[in-house]
Amino acid sequence: MTASTRPSTATGISKPTSELVTIDTHLAAYGLREFDDARAHRRWMRRKVGPEVADTIDQYAKAFSDHRILEAQERLYEALARPGVFGPASSSRFGAMRASAGEVLPYLPVTGAMLDLGCGPGHLTSWYARLSPSATFTGCDREPAFIDSATSDATRLGIENVTYVVADVTKGIPAGPFELIVSTQSVADADAESVVAQYGGDDSPHHEPSGLDDGPRARTLRMIAGALGPQGTYLAIEPLPTPDAMRTFVSEAAAAGLVLSFLGFTPFDVFGQPKAYPVAVFRHRGHVEADAAAAVTTVPEIDLEASYRQAVIDHLPHLLRSHAGAEEK
To answer: How much is the pTM?
Structure first.
């Protein structure tokens, strides 16, 4: 089996101004700061957002143990949507956001259209739009307050080629075709709704009688496949921490008509600790088959097990550098 390789350099794109807008500078404009120490971040965040909001964020982290996932998310989103809160609260993910943005860069359309699923307040979506001003960008999120904030911030920063819309990715996404669709920690956990429905019963506000046999994630992946243009790419940077989790995700994507073309990891640090997200690149099977037929060749297939092992091997230097740095301290 063969595996295609992803681009090694970013697409050549013009900038809206003569000044290079780095991801660090862009995130700083949204009030994010990078921290090496969790306690320092915690103290700074509490000063910025206040103890009540900080405690709400803590409660969200604890709620996953008692099947109150969506209830906790709703409380968290309400807190994060308040002015001046998301930046300080999300600064713990500064490294993850930087790493995710770097993975998207090689695939940014020059003149086409891109969709960012679960965009939150649009921090990354707006950066992509700044880097590729001749393309059009759409960000969607189910939280209206996030969309209002993203739209306001894009106007403040003078970014005119991005549009934000309210949409729950498990129920419907903006119509394509899109040259690039990106999900960053927004699709892999979509089946959390099924967990809530299971434990909430018929009276649960999240219960959908037809939803458990055909889960929200499977539906979302089918919608993604349908929204891709002929040469479109779906880039999934999702929290899939085990080979089994990745295997299940790839299998569901295949059932939706998506073909895996690359699998790797993007490394980052959280308060000095090495972390990584899997990076999976998909194309629509129909488009891949058409390309193969035109080239009189077979559809390339990824050896998932071998690709996962290689991705882990590629990630080892980051783990070793972080470990060595911790020992020096």
So the answer is: 0.81
